[in-house]
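User: Fold this; tokens only.

Assistant: Input:
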Amino acid sequence: MEELVERWQLTVGDEYPPGAAGRVFRVERADGTPAVLKLSLPHREAEQEADALERWGGIGAVRLLERDDEQHALLLERCEPGTFLSESPDALDVLIDLLPRLWRNAEGFHTLVDEAQIWIEHDLKNAEHGDLAAGLLRELAPSQGEQVLVHQDLHGENVLAAQREPWLVIDPKPLAAEREFAVAPIVRSFELGHSRRDVLYRLDRLCAELGLDRERARGWTIAQTIAWSGGSDYVGAHMETVEWLR
């Protein structure tokens, strides 16, 4: 970290609360611009985070200021005041506006086809409802429509209030996938309300307003929710979501 601080001419401030992905610090650049230094633990899902931020170019997402792939380090635009979108009563409106802005050319990104195969071979082996998810993935993955860049973890606490734009996306876990897959993390985002009515409302509204195939979006949500539930602190809530969607 010391070498990065010197090379990027940073003044380091407070550390954000620690997360599973690594360590994040408030910093200032040499010209006084506030920024964020993110030091990540290597992880397959976040391997192309910097590439996604570069592809978005600050449109709907935080700007990437510097990157060091060997040290898994990113220097990012800081979001102020930085409150979570999940705290806004307009959260779903914001997400419906953001999603099409993020659906860029996906050339060069890991594919949902490959990711689905990893889930089938590893994550679903001992998962609750693993057979259900594997069956959906075998049906949906090879029959996708147009591939776009999607953020497969776009929930209510991965969008922050900012000044350059009212809301900016953070922490992309990018994939090349069809648009229907992109709504899965939003449909199950219990921060936005956790009941059968809430889940189905989000699914129906996202698909209707974005012109998506509801059955495919429903299938992707079930499959990814099951695949991502292993080791999660929220497995109970996620399994309730699966039952409501079945």
